[in-house]
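EI: anyone free to look at a 305-residue chain?
SC: sure, send it
EI:
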Amino acid sequence: MVADTLGRERKPAWLKVRFPGGERYQHLKTLMRDQRLHTICEDARCPNIGECWNAGTATFMILGDVCTRSCGFCAVMTGRPYELDLLEPYRLAKAVQALGLDYVVITSVNRDDLETGGAEVFASCIRTIRRIDPRVRVEVLIPDFKGNWSALETVVYARPFVLNHNIETVPRLYRRVRPQAQYERSLELIRRAKDAAPDLLTKSGFMVGLGETRDELFDIMRDLRASDCDIVTIGQYLRPDSQHLPIERYYDPSEYEAFRDYGRQLGFTHVEAGPLVRSSYHAEKQSAPASAAPALIPLREVHGG
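SC: here you go
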């Protein structure tokens, strides 16, 4: 990595973003504080927070702001979580209404301290938002629930518009990057969600720059597509601070075109790839090519096996 005169890592020019600010940004920030809500935008130090918040979009983070896992790439605090807030779905729905949103992304910390991983809170958020405004499309970015497929069923039966679960990196790097997760379990989650609701849009994403090879990245794209994943997001890993994994290399913007081309060949309905791409970046546009509105066809069982 190239360093400046103070020894700090120097980022390429294409990774520079404007400092967040603006009237709409401040309004959204105030609303989050008033409703005691969290966003992954802030907790994970997303580089796109200024652009997204000024556009009136944000990714809500439910189940608190303390995660039970310690992934090597993530800036979210690790520790012992608080008790569940059963009024959180209602406050979130009121915030969505106040912002006038028609597309909402909801994610969470991992809650391995809970048998269901908080799946029922995801379901309650989806249903409460839809009860207040049936037109709102809800995308959920869910954890793996430690392979609890009944918990997955709870979320799928609430009928999100898009179900996202990130694969994050190549299997060879899991022990270092995602030590409490399992590559095959993440693939199985996507397969089971699609099997249960064939009309459901499925989505996943991964980072580059952690020491993987391009062939390994193409391998996980094939694995995702074979697991019936519809949408994939690919972006540059950015180190939150010195306590997290170092960046092995920066991918040039031109390299992402190869991922987009290969993804189209594999049959993904959309490939969002670029240095600053994150799971929910332009989320409402990613789902547009795949479906205008999902038909509510009969659901199948996702547990067992």
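EI: Residues 44 and 74 are 6 Å apart (CA to CA).
SC: 👍
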